[in-house]
Amino acid sequence: MTRRATPRSLRTALAAAAALTLVAGCSSSSSHSEATGAGSATTSASKAGPAPSGLQSFYSQKLEWEKCDEGECAKLRVPIDYAKPNGATIEIAVNRQKATGTKKGSLVVNPGGPGASGVDYAAAADSIVSAGVRESFDVVGFDPRGVQRSAAITCVGDAELDDLLGADPSPDNAAEQKELLAADKSFADACKKNAGPLLGHVSTEEAAKDMDVLRAALGEDKLDYLGKSYGTFLGASYAEQFPKKVGRMVLDGVLPPDLTMAELNAGQAKGFETALDAYLASCTKESDCPLGSEPAAGKKKLQEFLVGLDDKTVRAEGDSRIDRLTEGWAVNGIAAGLYDEASWPGLTDALRGAMNGDGTLLLASGKQYAERNDDGTYNGNIMQVINAVTCLDRPAPTGGVATYEKETKALAKDAPTWGSQLAWAGAICADWPVKATGEAKPVKAAGSGPIVVVGTTRDPATPYEWSERLEKQLENGRLVSYDGDGHTAYGRGSECVDSAIDSYLLEGKNLPEKTTC
Fold it and tell me: Which of 175, 281, 442, 482 is spaced 20 to 30 A from 504 at the CA atom?
């Protein structure tokens, strides 16, 4: 199961919901080093095929595994800039959960983000893949470049990040617009000052190159891969760059690489609106629903509540630094509750409390979403690096305030609640200190084997249409369609979905062009 994407906190990004509850598998951190002696990997003759020109020293690495909190950990050395392989390098943190039975290969996994920890994700292997897959595969996760243990990008301190995440994501007037844009620029300036040279080299394309170095270091001729949410973008980028190295690849909850930033924001706004409608239909059937007994009226009540947080003080307790519920934290808390229908009762309780003047539960949901602790610290750096990756991967909107206002109006009909929240999500990239290196373009992965794409019909963060979109682009795509709620489908209770994915991963079964569950 995977995670999310909303307003100011996640700024058009996607990550894995499972990452909220995972236990860290390694505690070591990575640092910048020179290419002459970095990392705990040694070099050896690789059995995984020839290396690209100039990258032989990286492709010939042999991972040196050490026991860590859960499983085994190692470090992989990669260049900061693949165009300058003899320049500075970083170390990528890797976690391995060994197969419980006879090993057939290595399954590399990524939970999303950009910015979620693959090390933590792999450490929870028993909960992310079936027992059969665990028996047959080493489950391997890595923190992508700039993330957590892999030369983490940090732009601001915890208190400054609190202010950014709690701010109003849907400005209602010129003064609020000015405040939002000033906060975005302040964060971008801090990244320019504090993030170092890696800031310009955390793109998805570069992370996919790291993944091929990892494949070689694992001794695998081809990459077997399970990516969820943003992890599908990473997998698709890999497939486009290295189609002949694609093994069994599953992309669940798709972020198509050809989406413009405007399309990304609009699609997610509509996706969250669909998920909200499903939640409201359920909640309003209950006698204790704080939004009333009629979905349309309940939606209007929720919208008015969020707007009212600009002026109304709703207290919150239990946090060392935050003592009130702001619109930014409330929106994040609501988004968290929409990722899985199992979270709906908790969302109802949180909304009931907030609408009665106690925002403690809804703030707690928002903080969990942001991987923030009650003592004011953050478990990782997803809320910082997410912007760095997003702003590199696709060009920012042009036209300034007029563009964001136009987007807000355009989304008002289909996404009256979430349109205003996400229309401004790309603004942070407008003042980004590094020019985008990526562009919105389709992925064909010509010459690859079958790639399985999974879509959920009422997925809030990655609308079903996006899975259809990528599958149609791929030269050899297969679509597994799940009629359900929540973000992603594999491992979330559908026997039909799980059976199809397991037969593909374990047996190499060639699925039909479309499987409907």
Answer: 442
